[in-house]
User: Fold this.
Amino acid sequence: MEFSHPDTELAGQPIGYWSWAAHKAVVGHIRKTLAARGVSQPQWWVLAQLAGSEDGRTREELRAVLGGYLDVGSALESETDTVVALGWARQDESERLRLTGDGAALHAELAVLQQSLRARIHADIPDEEYVRALKVLQRMIHNVGGHAWHH
Assistant:
């Protein structure tokens, strides 16, 4: 791969631009691929959280984990409603959401898709280099008083 600038020039490039460009490219690619399967990224997050919970989750528990993901905020409620309306999950009398058979099958299909997306995004990037990039980004977030967390 050819890089945009020599290393000496890259060192002076703005992180705001490059982090935005990476976000736009990667998240855009993920969302386009999921949309081709009729699923939004927040719907995938809901499916993944429900698949990972034997006892299901309440909407409050989903908000606690997913509410900060890419600023989904209040849209998470309508995305969860859509997951239920499409029959991928059901809400029981105790207000716990659980995957239906169709939801579990869709989750399994999308989990394989997510693995292939991750493989493409991480192609030719050793884990050590990826971890270092994340640590640099986390330090930058810390340096400006921000915070970020991902499960």
Q: What stands out?
A: Residues 15-35 form the longest helix (21 residues).
